[in-house]
């Protein structure tokens, strides 16, 4: 592995450490680009435009203070560590605020229910942590190696920083608080992964020794700090694991309910158009000619197939949507597709 020189250390610190003050070019550049990226991301999410959201990822400068936090941690530079962390926190709050304001002006009537950009950022799973770890490693590697610095724009696109914060603000505006928390979790996952992998890469490249050779003060790196970073990764991994297990359960539930629903529908001369499951609730859409089939029979069939714990939301095209509680409860008309879980 090529060694980091004192020249490389100066290049990295000048690129990552943002000095405060309105007269600081790096400070004004950071805040200008951040606000613009927040506006672009919010507009892209509202318009459900992938290209616009990708543009926000390229413009967004949040990667700089996040990697700056990792470098300051490795050098035990408390001043720049505090500054970088504050920039990450204040910048994140600013993006959420911009998203909230954009949502206040332009939130759609369905509260982003059919928005693919929102849907992609409110169900973080363990695979998102794996992707964030790989992307954070690539970013730190590209920063340490001048011969691969051209990869940084690709890293900016791969890591999702500003868009989930914009989604958080937009969802807070329409009172979707749980989903807002999920998009914030995605952002926190990416931040934790970048910091952890950045620290690992900088240590592997012996940045501390190169900084000391360059005459910079390098503090003593304690094991407690590294343990704290590891605990941070574990902290975000726990809800991601829960989310992954929930999605796996929903997929299995939908797979088990599909054949049962089709046999039931075929017996009444109807067809199953869609079968899905979310948060432990089965949702089935059927289509056919009147009279509508008896939903109690479907509820009983699901109970017999081992899905008795799962509430059922049955959409009958041309008729009412029917909600059938778990454990064979009586089916009732549901006037909206979004209903409270009767099993809770």
UniProtKB/TrEMBL annotation:
Organism, scientific name: Catenulispora yoronensis
Name this polypeptide is given: DUF389 domain-containing protein
Taxonomic superkingdom: Bacteria
Lineage: Bacteria, Bacillati, Actinomycetota, Actinomycetes, Catenulisporales
Keywords: Membrane, Transmembrane, Transmembrane helix
TM helices/strands, residue ranges: 30-47, 53-76, 85-106, 126-144, 151-172, 184-205, 226-247
Keyword Magnesium: no
Entry keyword Cytoplasm: no
